[in-house]
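Please, structure for the following, as tokens.
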Amino acid sequence: MNLQALVKKPPSWLSGEDDAGGIVVSCRARLARNLAGYPFGTKITDEQRDLVVQQVLAAAKGSQLMETATFLDMSTLDGNERRVLVERHLVSPALADTKGQRGVLFDQSESLSIMINEEDHLRMQAIFPGLGGEAWSRISALDDELGASLDWAFTDKLGYLTACPTNTGTGLRMSVLIHLPGLVLTEDMERVLHGLSQLSFAVRGVYGEGSNALGNLFQVSNQSTLGSSEEDTVEELMRIAEQLVAFERDAQETLIADARSQVEDKVWRAYGLLSNARVLSSQEFMNLLSAVRLGLSLSVLKGVPSSFMNQIMITTQPAHLQAEAQRALDPAERDLRRAESVRRKLAELTVDTEGGAA
């Protein structure tokens, strides 16, 4: 596949559907699976990894969900192409940074993908917009289709066996990518984080483990995969997500009641900077984008679709900017291009100065 064509088409999970008033970006279901008869993790040889790839691709051809999917061999991609896949949430940073017989398989909408030979032989993922009710049903269907021809490493006592014990059992990680500026600004986020950890939920940045929570975006996921059914895990994550949405709405209402002028000023300053800035770093852009997202949730600002906000969050990331330029860019050049891209795209929208769509 030509990655130039890929970067011009936004993934379907950025559509902004079912986003709880701009609060929930996406929902993801991920399954860890290993093939019986092969070592896991660092014990597997390159020759065995190659056999795993061959078996998975053969099984995918017999799958209705993945029969027309695209396979990318990571060894054939340069560093920036790998980072493009990370920015689109198709592969993990760990897979992008590892050499050897590894790859990723994904459908045309980028809703379904399979990382092959990351920490486990397979990491299957379904990612959908907003609260994403389809994520679990789609990944479960894919698991059934591939399991019809692949022999999973499984025991009646422990369930699905994985390279890391924390994934053993169901192998299921459910997560939501959620925007929580109200909780951050009202200084309630630490309390919420503590509560989530007590309930065995992990809170990470946009790209999962090891990443930072830029722009008040947090990835919340279950930590336990042993001792609970898949259905219980899905229900618990949905319950937690709905509670977080309610907490965030309460925090936003508090902000607008106690400090309306300051909130409106923050939102419109951010929109003004994004519309006119000549230089934007990644961190500054994400922070300004967060303020605009908050304004949309509060109806302080109107006329900017959630899909638009989600898409520019991805297209202005470093690897996407370099893919568009078709050359390596130093940080200063990326900051210039990011600002130019945001100005150009915002100029296509019409937003009045009273906070409503013109």
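Residues 259-346 form one domain. The two ends are 41 Å apart (CA to CA).
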